[in-house]
Amino acid sequence: MTSTATPPAPDRPSILLRLRQELSSAPVVTGPAHPGSKNQNRPPSDDSGPRGHIGWIVVGSMATGLVAAVLLVAAPFIPLAERAVTGAVLCGFALGWAVLALLSVRLTDQPQRWAAAPALFMGLGGLLLLAFGSPVHEVLDWAWPPALLVLVVWMIVQVRRRLGSRSGRWLLYPVIAMLAVASIGGGYQTVREAADAKASPMPGQLIDVGGHRLHLSCTGSGSPTVVLEPGAGMVSTDLGRIAPAVARNTRVCVYDRAGRGWSEPADTPQDATQIATDLHTLLHRGHVPGPYVLAGHSFGGLYTLTFAARYPDEVAGMVLVDSTAPASAVKPRATPPGDGSSYDLTGRVSALISTSARFGLGRLVGQPTASALRSTIDEYIQGNSSVQQAASLRDFADKPLIVLTAGVGSDAGWSAKQDALATLSTNSAHRVIEGATHASLISDEEDAVATTHAIHDVVASLRGTGPLGK
Q1: What is the DSSP string of 189-208?
Q2: DSSP assignment, residue 290?
Q3: Which of 14, 172, 242, 304 is most buried by its number of CB atoms within 10 A?
Q4: DSSP readout, 334-364?
Q5: Closest by CA position to 179, among listed 265, 100, 252, 119
Q6: Whole-angstrom Cα distance, residue 318 to residue 316?
Q7: pTM (two decimals)
Q8: Class for domain 205-335+382-463, per CATH?
């Protein structure tokens, strides 16, 4: 009988050694993260992930929004009004956020679906402004700033959670910061406008002059009626030292040009001809009969001269207070009032710039509202046309005319033009007010007295109770 040998038992240390070697050479398999893992929801931080470059998509989306906003503002089908331009800008930026939401989902592994929220917020606001205009603007002025601030906080949280790209985050943070500043500035502007309106209730009345209403306030009694015309960028309240003093002697009227003070903005270019036309309509519809003594300061002198040229039978006398001189061209060029047939690029740029006043920036340059800022910008844009239109008055006959010139800050060329203005009438006087500046002739208590005296002298001359004097 053959016996089989029993194999020797394996050595335990050698088995452990072999097992350790096999485990060390096996590939490492990473399982799903534990539900409590700290980085479970954090997206990849590499811009060049397996499905695209999120950083470039952020750049392209924001650039798309900016370009779209500019193109929409320039589009001829967008009305030439500040509210419409604001709506166009919002729609353009909304497109940029929509592009970010769409492309990040389709082309990257870091979908930014949250970007649809600012796209919807801005797009809806822009469309409402384009469709309904001013009534919606008044509501949005109050609702938009706090809603935007809440949206900004939510956007910051979403960027931190959903956007792993460091470059993408740093590209979006400045944009979101600008939205936060716009929200705070917009709220400040709305509150300040409401406070200003409460602190300074409107005197007089608003009168429709054809598509917009102008503010008119008349005080005093007697004839002739004095009509005061403030300078560039100014409002009726800037003549607060002149009007009450004149009202002690005769009736005096002050008003605000379109877009200024309490007056509504106009959709037509406001050159000297249009301003004179609107003033004529305002006085007649306000039941203010002539004849008038017109007193214009600075740019207001151009509108006074143009009014006198267009309605000579209704102007009995004038006072030009350091007035801008009209052009010396033999045939002044006239721009038809309200001609909107040609594309007005400068007007669109003006409307775009004026939107900055919605965030309180207009107050830095003394223009408290968007309409006031745009009106001032447009006034200077139309300045060349206005100086030429004012040159249409070449003969004021023997009607009383006083030209006041500031003694400080006037060079020889300015003084010569003031002398030329005095030659418009054979019954005129040119007075240089020593120590007075261009602005102080209406703003300084002592220098404003000289302006008031000049107006009184013209009124007295028309009444036959005193000479015009020198």
Answers
A1: HHHHHHHHHHHSPPPSEEEE
A2: S
A3: 304
A4: -PPTT---S--HHHHHHHHHHGGGGGTGGGG
A5: 119
A6: 7
A7: 0.78
A8: alpha beta
